[in-house]
Design brief:
single chain; about 260 residues; mainly alpha; 10 helices; globular
Length: about 260
Amino acid sequence: MKSFHNPLIDLRYWVLISLASIFGTNTGDLAVRWYKQASDVMGLPILFGLKHLGPLPILVVLFVALYFIEKLDSKKIELYFWTAIIIIRTAATNIADSLNDDVLIPVVTTISISTILLAIGGFIWQSQRQKPIEGFFTPNSNHFYWGMMIIAGVLGTLIGDELAHAFGLQMSSLVLSVILLGIITLGYKKFLIFTGFYWFGIAFARIAGTAVGDWLAKSIVKGGAGFGLPLATLFSGLVFIAVATLWKTNKTKAVN
């Protein structure tokens, strides 16, 4: 994507990444639910027999279309970047849920492989990226960047689901949110911006976002807030849009 369509990596960025992780958890689950309903009515195929991957081709088409449309727009807006993030987060939910529920691979194996890939990718990204601007850094959102976003999203979803199963949705949501708040507060001007740990910050935002998104959507009986999936998706989406719209960053001041 063009650099002027990207946000600065400041406090606002990390808050929005965290909110996008919650929203993407809900949209991923809702997309699968809608696809299953459409499949029952219209006889749509299940991709490779993996029930959670049904929406994935649609998400790929949306991302590719967004990618090419963005190239034609010279307006300095962040809409394309954050829309891409939501699509990636939605796809990561579908992929991780398919690995968890459809593919007979131990979760420890999938988490280990994803962690190794993220670490290797983080090292490569750190060695190749442009020198950060003092205090801020605009991401070079190329193909490698979005591939890393997928890996971080899948890893975060896998770990978030496992922690929720182990400790319950309410407890895991609360504890992970507090830890994420501490990581962002302490690191958004330091290790989250200047090092490859940026990608583990992205992954941890997804870990917490997975727990919170599921907590919003699940019933009270299952330890959730009882919103239900459609209402939880609407709520998390509106919160994300409101923060993205109302919280502005002065890029000129930040760069200078």
